[in-house]
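Our consortium's second objective concerns turning raw sequence data into structural hypotheses that experimental partners can test. To show how far this objective has progressed, the report includes one record in full. It was chosen at random from the queue rather than selected for favorable results. The single chain below, 228 residues long, was entered without modification.
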Amino acid sequence: MGKVIQSNLNALLDKAEDERKLVELNLDEMDEQIKAGHQEVVQAVAAEKQLRKKCDDLQVDVQRWDKRAELALKGGDEALAREALKQKKLRASEFETADKVRSQQHEAALRMKDDLERMKQKLAELKLRKPTIVARAQQARATASGSEQLGARGGTSAFDNFRRMEEKIEGREAEGAAMAEVEDVLGKREKGEDLEAKFRDLEKQSGGGSGASDVDDELAALKKRIRV
């Protein structure tokens, strides 16, 4: 039920056609949430009652094992009395743990009850204010739409359509200008690369003689060093 309401709510939010229905669906969803919250409170209270019964049972066990220990000791069986006291201590430890959990559960149930009561009061208040909320929603829609929505059919304004068309044209123009700029840059880069290649070839050709001269000079220097 909640998913169906949420689906309808989303559809109305997208279309923004029926403010009254939108408000009613919101109120219905709140009502469903309160019902679910009420069920959660019932479950929390039931859990606390179960824990309380567990604590009562453990207290009875503690007393029972205490009496058994006393009975065994009176009968002269100290070992049996010792075992009974161990059981008593075990039950007492379990009681402390269970009682702590029960206390936490009790506090949680109280908080949930308070939250549920506030939700009920809020929903009752919103139901009383529904006509005012619907009017404000309609006014907000009219204000947001502006004067260009006057006379529009099917919720679509010709001014909005023209504006979107104009934006598309501007976008295409911007894309065309950007493409032309990119092509221009690429063309200049290709020209620069061609020029760079020509100079590299020229430098290689002229560099051959220079390399040979460097070798001759180095050889001459080596000969002088050997002579020394």
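The partners drew two points from this record. The longest helix spans residues 158-227. The chain has a mean pLDDT of 76. Both points have been shared with the crystallography group to help prioritize constructs.
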